[in-house]
Amino acid sequence: MSKDPQSLRGAVQAKTKFRDKFTAWQLHHRQSARESLGRILQSPLASLMTCLVVAIALALPTTLLVALNNLQILGDSWDANPKISVFINVRAREEAVRQLQKDLQAFAEINDVEYISPEQALQEFQAMSGFGEILGFLDENPLPPTLVVTPVSSIVEPASLKTLAMKIGEKPIVDTVDLDMDWVRRLQELMVLGRKIVTALAGLLSLGVLLSLGNTIRLAIESRKEEIIITKLVGGSNGFVRRPFLYSGAWYGFLGGVVACILVFAGFSSIKGTVANLAAAYQSQFFLQGLGFSGNLGLLAVSTILGLMGAWLAVGRHLSEIEPR
Amino acid sequence: MIEFSNVSKRYPTGHEALSRVNLNVGEDEMVFLTGHSGAGKSTLMKLIMLMERPSAGQVVIGGRNLNRMRAGQIPLHRRQVGVVFQNHQLLFDRNVFENVALPLRIAGYGSREIARRVRAALDKVSLLDREKVNPITLSGGEQQRVGIARAVVNKPPLLLADEPTGNLDPELSAEIMKLFRQFNEVGVTILIASHDVELIRAMDCRVLSLSQGQLVYDGFLV
Ligand SMILES: Nc1ncnc2c1ncn2[C@@H]1O[C@H](COP(=O)(O)OP(=O)(O)O)[C@@H](O)[C@H]1O
Ligand SMILES: [Mg+2]
Predict the structure, then answer these.
(1) Which residue from A198, A305, A307, B180 puts its CA 20 to 30 A from B67's CA?
(2) pTM, to two decimals
């Protein structure tokens, strides 16, 4: 049945028709993209303003996010293994301290206990701080003997660490117990909070971008009302009429994204040197991470999609109202 | 080509612009639609273009029942009807060529084919040498001819013209009518709304006459 020439010709015709339609559709996409970019470039100042609004709204949360990432890297580079510093009463005899070291070593929760004598501590301190001469004036070593306790790796939770620290603190010769993991944890918590705030901010600013681009496109639609009416009158489909406006939105978003990338790059470049010097002063390997290739790409994608969505909102609301009468 | 059966159109204001109109215009015909201002001529044309929907009755154009046409099919229908409307004129942000090319761009022709067809249409209305100028610099009669070129560039089987000579002096009007006749001679069905009785009499065509929304006359003027 499908082999008879009549229906075969029909099939071929349908196929050609489809191909023609597809080619036309492609052609109009190219034309719309080119034409809408041309329109944007035709009024450079107004377009620059629009792009700057997009760029600033996107650069702000992006910068904060990148800064947070840098903090994260900094936090991770710190020894994540929590250590407990146990400061012994200065009047305790060394044998008693050695005995405590052995006792603690026997704890199931403890992996290792290191003894730092007051003399050792003083030497280290002198070498590190350069305060050697001042310390030389003191006739007595003010530093207490210290035990540095490393818990077994399974104990990481703040609560169980605290329990362990309290258990150690109950020993008679112990003065104070210092859980130096505290601030790392606090930093992590702050970072989680920071991320939440930045995400909320990014959401709000994105909404702003969406609405402001939507408004720009609405004005463009308004100013081309007559053209839209005539286009519809001579057989332009909604898709045909919609297309250039959607491309305009996407272009605004994309160009705004490019400017945002430049802003973020410029911002981080300007403080990179300072951070490197600071890191060097602290003997840190840390150096400032920018947005990176994928980050820039992501920012461009987000901004373009925001532009497209803004245009879509405007077009959906206003284009259907414009009909030839 | 055009079939109206018992077509009525009541606007949301309550005004009945057309009441129970029956008419039939065959292929290759050239017909005048006449009647005083407010008689319903434009409304009738808007129904053909699906710019309005009838309140009752049925409109069939080229065998297609417009009542059953969904919104998505309207663009394709409009591409097969050329229009010259008073209030939807040329675009002054582009040159004559681009104005005429618009229906072809919509239909998705390639640029070479567009150039060929636009020049052929401009040639027919004797404006070939004006393709690059902005239509705002043209006279009223010339603008009207550009509008006609745009209406026929896609070679539609049906052409509607709503008061195409409204603002033109008799000489220019006669010229425009000559153009329509030429298109009619190559097989385009033409419906022209006009209240210029002198002009209609001179053309010696079939006349449909509307009065307060009713078809009161159908035939040749004697
Ligand atoms: N959109 C509209 N809403 C309400 N009334 C309308 C509308 N368009 C036309 N009319 C009324 O319908 C009648 C016919 O109008 P129209 O078809 O424009 O007549 P013509 O073109 O013959 O002058 C007029 O009384 C006019 O006021
Ligand atoms: Mg009218």
Answers:
(1) B180
(2) 0.76
